[in-house]
């Protein structure tokens, strides 16, 4: 299963650890978990908290059970997170595949190379916003790739490491 939501990348992995620790060890409903993330981390909206909760599931740092969401007891490790990011977040492997190792690409150029991968149903769901939403997602994917050592950023754009 591939997950689509991907939040803005934080400044470091310590923030990922903080968000993971805010997920309960005893299963809680999505509403309860989002409220807890908002309270403990300071997320400004339920949507941001829900995106992080889903993203933690993608990174295998939280899971959904029959009783609700629960934290997985394992520390975020850069190498493991880089692997799960590529295999469990929709589009990341494609974004990395279009990034060259020997030249820099701006985020917009990466988006243009990626845009054929936008799911058809999303193009029809809200055609006025689909490109803006996916531009943001591609930008977030690139920043997560930088954070996890899969890419590097310069004033000229991004390239794969």
Outline of the structure:
The protein has 161 residues and is mainly α. The protein has 8 helices and 4 strands, in the order H-H-H-E-E-H-H-H-H-H-E-E.
Explain how this protein is built.
The chain is mainly alpha-helical and 161 residues long. The protein is 53% helix and 10% strand. Strands 1-2 form a two-stranded antiparallel ribbon. A two-stranded antiparallel sheet has the order 3-4. A hairpin with a 2-residue loop joins strand 1 and strand 2. It is globular, with a radius of gyration of 16 Å. The protein starts with 12 loop residues before the first helix and ends with a strand. The model has no long low-confidence stretch (mean pLDDT 95).
Chain-wise SSE layout:
Blueprint: H1 13-22, H2 30-41, H3 46-58, E1 62-65, E2 68-71, H4 78-88, H5 92-98, H6 107-114, H7 120-125, H8 130-147, E3 151-154, E4 157-160
Antiparallel strand pairs: 1-2, 3-4
Helix pairs in contact: 2-3, 6-8
Residue runs with pLDDT of under 50 for 5 or more positions: none
Structural class: mainly alpha
How many β-strand runs?
Answer: 4
**Number of helical segments?**
8
Q: What is the 3D form?
A: globular
Side by side, the strands of the main sheet go: 1-2
How is the quaternary structure best described? single chain
């Amino acid at each position: 299963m591939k997950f689509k939501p991907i939040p803005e990348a934080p400044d470091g992995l310590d923030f990922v650890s903080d968000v993971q620790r805010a997920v309960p060890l005893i299963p809680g409903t999505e509403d309860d978990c989002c409220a807890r993330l908002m309270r403990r981390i300071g997320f400004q909206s339920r949507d941001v908290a829900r995106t992080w909760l889903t993203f933690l599931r993608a990174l295998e740092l939280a899971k959904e059970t029959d009783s609700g969401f629960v934290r997985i007891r394992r520390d975020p490790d850069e190498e493991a997170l880089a692997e799960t990011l590529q295999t469990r977040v929709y589009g990341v492997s494609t974004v990395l595949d279009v990034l060259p190792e020997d030249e820099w690409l701006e985020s917009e150029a990466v988006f243009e190379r990626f845009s054929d991968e936008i799911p058809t149903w999303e193009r029809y769901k809200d055609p006025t916003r689909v490109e803006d939403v996916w531009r943001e997602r591609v930008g977030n994917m690139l920043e997560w790739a930088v954070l996890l050592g899969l890419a590097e950023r310069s004033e000229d754009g991004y390239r794969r490491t």
